[in-house]
Task: inverse folding
């Protein structure tokens, strides 16, 4: 079953010289239990597309279907339903984490938004979530500032997973991290996707990173998708000149990604 189907989506933003068309007639699908990568240079419209899916920017034309039902984000009830179905993790984990809340409070709150859990069940769930994203459960008492960047991003990921969404949108989730930590977080995301059978839209500008976690990849340029293909096929036989340019810029792509660094230590 297709979890997400976007058809002919157009998104405009207001600009000083009139409207900017950030997304221009985009169609894509994320089949259930798979990861679609969305890759493109800065300004190609990736985040506008993601924000339109979760109702943060208005859709000008087109349709967004989740599990066969059209997404609307007009009322609080719509937004609540949408939050249950789709969770987003962004580049900067600090936007998702309240600096005054411990990891336990953040994850406990997320785990009980849609599920009633008593205190012991809630604490057990927090431990499970931390283990799921490869963090030591003993970090539960820490505040975000007492964690490293990679650890904060893992907590943001755990917070999104706590809701048990049908679809996870990861938008540039590793871009702000050190290269060695990026590899560790990417591997965690890939393992989680496989283990939980998650459906995911993985957005990034780094082609090797996107290919590493994705079953298929859509290449975006100037608001349009220029090519979509299974990851192997895209790497083996890219069809569009822009995809070839992206590939040529990373000649080492066919070699395995760097080994993850040992888990980063908190400051
Ligand atoms: N809130 C906004 N108001 C006006 N223009 C915007 C807004 N958000 C994005 N844009 C414009 O829309 C276009 C697409 O931007 P978008 O952020 O979606 O691209 P992106 O591929 O995600 O880029 P990046 O990787 O740099 O975030 C750009 O021209 C950008 O300047």
Result:
């Amino acid at each position: 079953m297709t979890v997400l189907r976007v058809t002919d989506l157009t998104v405009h933003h207001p600009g000083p010289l009139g409207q900017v068309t950030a997304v221009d007639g985009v169609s894509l699908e994320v089949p259930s239990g798979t990861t679609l990568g969305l890759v493109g240079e800065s300004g190609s419209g990736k985040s506008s597309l993601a924000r339109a899916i979760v109702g943060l920017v208005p859709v000008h034309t087109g349709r967004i279907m989740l599990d066969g039902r059209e997404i609307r984000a007009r009322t609080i009830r719509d937004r609540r339903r949408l939050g249950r179905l789709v969770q987003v993790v962004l580049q900067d984990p600090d936007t998702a984490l309240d600096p005054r809340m411990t990891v336990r409070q953040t994850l406990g709150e997320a785990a009980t938004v849609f599920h009633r859990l008593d205190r012991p069940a809630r604490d057990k769930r927090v431990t499970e979530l931390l283990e799921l994203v490869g963090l030591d459960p003993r970090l539960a008492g820490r505040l975000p500032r007492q964690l490293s960047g990679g650890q904060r991003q893992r907590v943001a990921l755990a917070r999104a997973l706590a809701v048990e969404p049908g679809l996870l949108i990861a938008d540039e989730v590793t871009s702000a991290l050190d290269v060695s930590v990026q590899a560790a977080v990417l591997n965690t995301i890939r393992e989680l996707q496989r283990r939980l059978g998650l459906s995911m839209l993985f957005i990034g500008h780094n082609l090797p990173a996107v290919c590493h976690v994705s079953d298929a990849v859509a290449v975006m340029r100037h608001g349009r998708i220029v090519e979509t293909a299974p990851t192997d096929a895209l790497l083996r036989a890219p069809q569009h000149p822009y995809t070839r340019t992206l590939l040529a810029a990373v000649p080492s792509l066919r070699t395995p990604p760097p080994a993850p660094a040992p888990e980063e230590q908190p400051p």
Remarks:
- The longest strand covers residues 2-15.
- Residues 84 and 96 are 16 Å apart (CA to CA).
- The chain is about 35% helix and 25% strand.
- The first helix runs from residue 46 to 53.
